[in-house]
Design brief:
Elements (H helix, E strand, L loop, with lengths): L5 H7 L5 E2 L2 H9 L4 E6 L8 H15 L3 E6 L20 H15 L12 E4 L1 H4 L4 H7 L6 H5 L2 H6 L6 H4 L1 H16 L3 E5 L3 H15 L4 E5 L12 E2 L2 E2 L9 H9 L6 H8 L4 H13 L5 H15 L1 H14 L10 H11 L1 E4 L7 H7 L6 H9 L3 E3 L2 E2 L17 E6 L3 E7 L1
Parallel strand pairs: 2-3, 2-5, 3-4, 5-6, 9-13
Antiparallel strand pairs: 1-6, 7-8, 10-11, 10-12, 12-13
């Protein structure tokens, strides 16, 4: 990829929902290395799927020769961008500082800090904390007509339910970031999610008003399911990038289960496969959807990107074993534990274990002992991937996998864990 065609590449991948003057942006990206920035507010202890769109976009731009400035919002994270669901709970300074560092470490894995276009991380707390209210109102607030601020979509939707002055003024802080990076570092491009479009254009307009020069911006689209609802949720909550908040196994499973209709779109956005590979996988998915070739490649590529290739292999081995096709004893204990906790089940105190019928009921695989008895009689019950043939089976400590688990399965796809201790 060269700097001359990176915008075309982004457009083919469906990563440009809005932009400032498209011709001017293309020309700037074709003239040499453009300094660009994307920001992440530490409003949670981890980034998530929506942030991943921005991280892979930053990497694409850097791979094309442009220079990243990754902003972690130690100041804006104290406030939080307005959202449709209502006012955010303000976090303490200590919490925001801790989350800022966690987010900084996460984003640093996706761009390179070496070479002629090495990435730089910045924290907007550094230029915001010492700014006086009077200077802020005179130097920044003066350039923002209130009628324009009221016209922002999120603000309009919040006016009836109420919005604080704190969140209402968020756009001024983010715009000031762009102005500061433009002045201090020569940053000429900002991008972010489509929910940030008002902030992005606010920043570009502030740069123009204060300096008389043009600044560029674009927004990536909101990623939605086929029914139009937001992506980014698993059964357990948000699709976090932190392995302590969402296991690599669960992360891999999420991508394996996306709809056939969305595979091509998600391959374009989240992977670095070339056009020929993506289109071939789309074709395979359309012709033989039951093979799930697109989903498998998508899950492997994105999990490797976020968690590393080794975790992909652990996740695949765990899935194979849990669904009856592999050795449970060969799974990394941490992966087995996280997979079984994701699946649901129960915890028992140390001591004598219940019989198989009670275990099936307590693990949620049978509604009653009678149903559990029928499942065993019909050959549909498994303990540690071995078919249960005796309704009186009494597991012992010797049956525990990885020291503390019993793996129960009903049929081919329904499994649960029983943790002992």
């Amino acid at each position: 990829m060269t700097t001359a065609n990176v915008l075309d590449e982004l457009e083919w991948r469906g990563l440009v929902a809005h932009s400032t003057d498209r011709d001017a942006l293309r020309a700037a990206l074709g003239e040499g290395s453009v300094k660009f920035y994307v920001g992440f507010d530490p409003t949670a202890p981890s980034l998530h799927m929506g942030n991943l769109v921005q991280l892979v976009t930053a990497r694409r731009l850097q791979d094309a020769g442009h220079t990243p400035y990754i902003l972690v919002g130690g100041a804006t994270g104290m406030i939080g961008d307005p959202r449709d669901s209502g006012e955010r709970t303000l976090n303490s300074l200590d919490t925001v500082k801790e989350w800022t560092e966690r987010v900084r470490q996460q984003v640093s894995r996706f761009v390179s800090f070496d070479g002629s276009n090495a990435a730089t991380t910045v924290n907007n707390y550094d230029w915001t904390a010492s700014l006086s209210t009077i200077d802020f109102l005179r130097d920044i607030g003066k350039h923002f007509p209130v009628n324009r601020m009221l016209a922002r979509d999120t603000v309009k939707r919040r006016l009836e339910s109420g919005i604080s002055y704190t969140e209402f003024s968020y756009v001024l802080l983010q715009s000031m970031d762009y102005l500061n990076l433009f002045r201090e570092h020569g940053v000429q491009l900002q991008f972010g999610g489509s929910d940030q479009w008002g902030n992005i254009t606010g920043g570009a307009e502030l740069v123009r008003r204060v300096t008389g020069e043009n600044a560029h911006g674009f927004a990536t689209p909101l990623i939605t399911k086929t029914d139009g609802t937001k992506y980014g949720k698993t059964e357990g909550g948000a699709l976090w990038l932190d392995p302590e908040m969402l296991s690599p196994y669960a992360f891999h499973q999420f991508w394996l289960n996306v709809e056939d209709e969305k595979v091509g779109e998600l391959l374009r956005i989240f992977t670095f496969l070339d056009r020929e590979e993506v289109e071939d996988l789309e074709k395979q998915t359309a012709e033989k959807p039951f093979v799930r070739a697109g989903q498998k490649r998508l899950a492997d590529e994105v999990t490797a990107l976020v968690h590393g290739a080794e975790e992909v292999e652990h996740a695949k081995a765990a899935a194979a074993a849990l669904f009856g096709g592999g050795d449970l004893g060969a799974i990394k204990p941490e992966t087995l534990a996280s997979a079984l906790r994701e699946a649901g089940g129960t915890t028992l105190p140390p001591g004598e274990l219940p019989g198989i019928l009670d275990l099936l009921v307590s693990a949620g695989l049978a509604k009653s002992k009678g149903e559990a008895r029928r499942t065993v009689a019909e050959g549909g019950a498994y303990l540690n991937n071995v078919r249960v043939e005796d309704v009186e089976l009494q597991p012992t400590a010797a049956d525990l996998v990885a020291g503390s688990w019993l793996v129960l399965r009903r049929g081919k796809k329904n499994f649960a864990g029983v943790e002992v201790g």
